[in-house]
What does this fold into?
Amino acid sequence: MATMDSEDHAPNSKLLLTDDAGLPGPKTTVKLGFLVKRKQLVNILLLGVGFMFSMGSYNTCAMASTVILSGIHDEYFSGTDTIGYTILCVVYGSTAVSFLMAPSVSAILGPKITMVTGAMFLLCYVTTFLRPLTETLYLGAVAQGIGQGLIWTVYGFMLSTNSSEKTIGRNTGIFWCLLQSSLVSGNLFYFFMLRGVDVLPEGSRIFIFVVLIVSAALGIVVLSLLRHPWTKPKKGNSHDLMAQSTIKSDHQGPLEAITAMMRLLFSRKMMLLLPTYIYGLTCRFT
It folds into this structure.
């Protein structure tokens, strides 16, 4: 049913396409659907860029940690040839534990806040390299592990809720392309900073980690811009885009999240996949 402005009955008057109940008609629904898809694509781009900055700073820091820390010998810290590997062991041990807690944390804080919190933990880890101390490095490694568990757990939820069966492949490719590009830029930056240098001067070390800290901080800012397609609109706005794209999902509490995770862990399909996860074979297919 088309309604016409009562004050202007000219042939060129703008028609408002509505149905009998006063709701947006088919054309409006199609337009809203297009806007939803565009917003979801923007979310995927923000997710990829956010990970590119946050995880890129961590990856560069992790790969350079052994060489950089082994060359530091002063009154506060004396590096060894193995301390970088020990720190990485603490990082991934903390990550394994964090993955167990992450579903409950996400159920309490919500996915977006959980992801931003995880990115903040990543920033804490990189910061500890400005003035290395044994205690702060290990605490930073624990923080990094917690942050990784949070951010990677929510990543899957963000990717799936911003994708459909037709766009999941494209969106996954976009995300991983942006994330892996950080390894190229990070390693090139590290290469040019250390080229021809046997022992990294303190000034160069501080400059490297200031750049990585800024990168991690940018990741937090970008991830905080994510817009939830599943968020309910404010009351009174019947034409809000989010009203057309709300995804109905059950909001699990922390105990329900742990229970669901354990059920999945001991399911037949997951038990078949566990050997490939243990030996890292899945990395060849992601």
Notes: The first strand starts at residue 2 and ends at 3.
